[in-house]
């Protein structure tokens, strides 16, 4: 499934919910399914700067496919990073680096976050893209 198809799947899932309280609950549920980072990778250099809560992101490139794992101490943030990972996991570094994460705007996520969470979202996307750029061959 391409990045575009994964994004459309998320857009369709969010369209089911009428109000943002239901959407937040769904985001929290997604966080519970997050591929968790191993404890050994919960280090200062993997902490995403600019997030109100602590968010660790580990990125590996295996067979020219990006593999992200993460964790957060906040349930909403955990769900947000889970959404981002879902879109770009198992994609080439080039595709991750070029991804525009259009689903964020389509589902209205950024406008329904507090300013500090919104900044954190931007930082998460930036870190994922930077990790992908490092892996480009």
From TrEMBL:
It comes from the Bacteria. SUPFAM superfamilies: SufE/NifU. InterPro entries: Fe-S_metab-assoc_dom. Signal peptide: none annotated. Residues 12-129 form the Fe-S metabolism associated domain. Pfam families: SufE. Belongs to the SufE family. This is Fe-S metabolism protein SufE.
